UniProtKB/TrEMBL annotation:
GO biological process: gamma-aminobutyric acid catabolic process
Phylogenetic classification of the source organism: Bacteria, Bacillati, Actinomycetota, Actinomycetes, Mycobacteriales
Gene behind the chain: gabD
Keywords: Oxidoreductase
InterPro entries for the chain: Ald_DH/histidinol_DH, Ald_DH_C, Ald_DH_CS_GLU, Ald_DH_N, Aldehyde_DH_dom, Aldehyde_DH_Superfamily
Protein name as it appears in the record: Succinate-semialdehyde dehydrogenase
Domain of life the protein comes from: Bacteria
Location of the active site: 264
Gene3D superfamilies listed in its UniProt record: Aldehyde Dehydrogenase, Chain A, domain 1, Aldehyde Dehydrogenase, Chain A, domain 2
Amino acid sequence: MTATISPTSANQAISRLHTDLFIGGRWTPAASGARFTVENPATGAPLAEVADADADDARRALQTAADHQTDWAATSPRFRSEILYRAYQLIMDRADEIAAVMTAEMGKPLADARGEVAYGAEFFRWFAEEAVRIGGDHTVTGDGNNRIVVSKQPVGPCILITPWNFPLAMGTRKIGPAIAAGCTMVFKPAELTPLTALLLTEILTEAGLPDGVLNVVTTTDPAAVVGEWMGSGQARKVSFTGSTEVGKILLGQAAETVMRTSMELGGNAPFIVCADADVDRAVDGVMVAKMRNMGQACTAANRIFVHRAVIDEFTEKLTGRMRALVVGDGADDATQVGPLVEAKAVDKVATLVVDALDRGAGATCGGTRPDGPGHFYPPTVLTDVDPDADLMHTEIFGPVAAIIPFGSTDDGSEDDGSIDEVIALANNTPWGLVGYAYTRDIDTADLLSTRLEVGMVGINTGLVSNPAAPFGGVKQSGLGREGGRLGIEEFLDVKYVSRPIP
Ligand code: NAD
């Protein structure tokens, strides 16, 4: 693709950024004047100072969104579509700059950041196309006396909250359908990665988004800012991506005003390698499902169940691939594995690995925390992980592949009950976002697709995320879907008009 971006050009891009709040089309400091520092996780170096909003700023932002809702809802679908399409093109034109900023604040290698730019931009193109396809329905009552005319309307001012792990795509996945549907919004990006969101805000302005439609608030006190919004009665919808823990708080707050919710929460993905799997493909798949974003993805393969008939071959090949990965600063083009996002994240991963090792697991690579600057943890493969180990019940959110054997040591050609066994293991979790399975047998694939308690299944693939697909989970992984044809529905209310037939 394009040439390496040097840290200098990332810093240049960041130094040109607006770092205030964005309310009513204006960049404005927090009323208190407070600011907070954004750091580079690879070096600990400060990158920028960003406005630190409080509840008063939050109130101002939501009031602005509410004031603009009626006018924005009255714009034509084509007008909204064209803004999104222009923003898609601007993101692609500035892909290198956005990737450099994202890598600097979040740590992922530049190649991954560029991948996220393309993925994130695609939500705008997808919803540019959806904006002009919002449908309705018409029927006649059974007695023939009345028309039932069903139309869709924007739900109203929305609260959008995103995590740090995909700083661009989690934003475009929410802002895209909100714009397409005709909703105004307040948007709070994660405090660890606000810079990509601020760059995105500049791009939307350049694309012609009218003042007051998108209002962006950065803060180190999300409970105060979001609490203000949730309790205001002015917002009609909250779309949240983040941890199940915070999602539950928001669901409780949403109940007070019966607010619509979309919740994209945590995961604990099973990755199943059956006895008849193509082992090389399964290793390719787990490298994606486990190592994308250094394992810091809700879709990350958290529990890798491998049939005993193929476990030795799988473990050896996976260990070879993990050992060969180049760990370093994501801004260096050679880097394949960047730092974790903050020191706390490394503490958590290291503690989970120690617990698994204490309970009898082995480590065929990695497993020890390195010294030195930056929040690094090495690619690690753990074998014979005890099903009671803490990492089986916690999102690891790090580059640790935990292998759990199932089935018997024979070749699995007879029905040995291993598929039932692994389905029970996989479903033994309160989460249900995604599951992956590798098998050559279509009936086994069908059985796993049906019985895994998840919102998404990858059969012989380690990547399910796509703007054209309905992303989301069941159980404690969330409510609602983002992307695909369902994505825009989350931002639309149904209105039925009854009219007598003359
Ligand atoms: P987090 O829940 O700590 O934070 C997410 C967002 O919520 C941030 O913007 C944060 O500032 C805000 N927040 C924190 N406390 C809040 C409060 N009391 N009230 C309102 N907002 C609050 O999650 P994180 O650490 O940023 O992200 C990692 C989590 O996100 C993981 O659990 C991961 O699985 C999940 N995630 C889910 C998806 C998905 O689509 N299902 C995608 C990416 C990440």
